């Protein structure tokens, strides 16, 4: 009886493993097709500069418009793309689309906006990364100074020489780098000061804890440390006006979060930016 049950459990377990393995393979095939068919889209989240009260940058965030499952968030397919290596072509699609949209925003007079694109550690394993990025930047005719790459601490720490060579070469072109999700990984300060990083993005999990009368020492210390190292600070995931006020007091340079705006498809972003501009000209008139 016990043996039979054991056998039964094993069977069920095995079945489930097989099923999830095959659906992962399905998903991989589907993502491959989605890339070919252009079923991915980028949404852009504005970043607000504390000092000027203006939108100074955008972060490109990928979504997958899936035929039957609707709009998929990155956490539903980026880990699989990293695992399978599909993140390499996907990453190029993202950069290429972001550069194109940057040019079109500029032509429509959206002004001078930095464009931040997330890069996975895995993308640095492609020996063609630097050459391809250079080619894409040239083809699109974008001034590299307006381009920023966001890397997580884990990406920066994992293969530092491989990563740092490419980073330095891009930094020479004028591209900026930011350290994403800061505080959630382990970065040594040696790396922070040795790599060409210009901005530190404080993770939402820390920003969530910023409250009036709260224990804000850690966030204040992160901001001071960043400034000490000559880095600018972006606070991520700001949802409440009170947090914005406090972060401003602590010296954060930029904020990004639902309080300012959710990530928006290009057409909505254009409307959002033109409303911002109108509001500003009313204020200054
Ligand atoms: P991330 O780079 O840290 O991006 C910030 C995430 O926080 C985004 O989620 C954004 O929509 C969300 N967020 C921003 N403000 C708020 C807020 O006020 N409240 C809440 N609750 N959330 C907020 P999203 O778009 O789902 O992206 C998740 C992650 O997926 C990103 O985290 C990034 O690590 C990854 N990702 C997105 N696009 C790409 C891409 O093109 N390439 C790579 N390699 N990774 C990407
Ligand atoms: Mg990011
Ligand atoms: Mg982040
Ligand atoms: Mg994140």
Automatic annotation (TrEMBL):
EAL domain ranges (all copies): 24-277
Name this polypeptide is given: Diguanylate cyclase (GGDEF) domain-containing protein
């Amino acid at each position: 009886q016990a043996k039979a049950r054991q056998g039964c459990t094993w069977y069920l377990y095995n079945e489930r493993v097989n099923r999830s393995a095959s659906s992962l393979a399905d998903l991989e095939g589907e993502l491959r097709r989605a890339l070919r068919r252009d079923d991915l889209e980028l949404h852009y989240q504005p970043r607000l500069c504390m000092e000027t009260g203006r939108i100074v940058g955008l972060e490109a965030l990928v979504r997958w418009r899936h035929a039957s499952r609707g709009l998929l968030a990155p956490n539903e397919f980026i880990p699989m793309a990293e695992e399978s290596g599909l993140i390499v072509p996907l990453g190029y699609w993202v950069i290429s689309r972001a550069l194109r949209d940057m040019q079109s925003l500029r032509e429509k007079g959206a002004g001078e906006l930095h464009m931040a694109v997330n890069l996975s550690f895995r993308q640095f394993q492609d020996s063609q990364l630097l050459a391809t990025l250079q080619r894409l930047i040239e083809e699109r005719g974008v001034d590299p100074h307006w381009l920023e790459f966001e890397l997580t601490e884990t990406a920066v720490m994992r293969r530092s020489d491989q990563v740092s060579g490419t980073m330095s070469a891009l930094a020479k072109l004028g591209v900026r780098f930011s350290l994403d999700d800061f505080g959630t990984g382990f970065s040594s300060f040696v790396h922070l000061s040795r790599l060409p990083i210009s901005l530190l993005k404080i993770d939402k999990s820390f920003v969530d804890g910023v409250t009036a009368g709260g224990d804000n020492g850690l966030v204040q210390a992160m901001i001071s440390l960043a400034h000490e190292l000559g880095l600018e600070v972006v606070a991520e995931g700001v949802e409440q006006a009170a947090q914005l006020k406090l972060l401003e007091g602590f010296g954060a340079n930029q904020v990004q979060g639902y309080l300012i705006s959710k990530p928006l498809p290009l057409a909505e972003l254009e409307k959002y930016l033109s409303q911002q501009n109108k509001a500003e000209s009313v204020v200054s008139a």
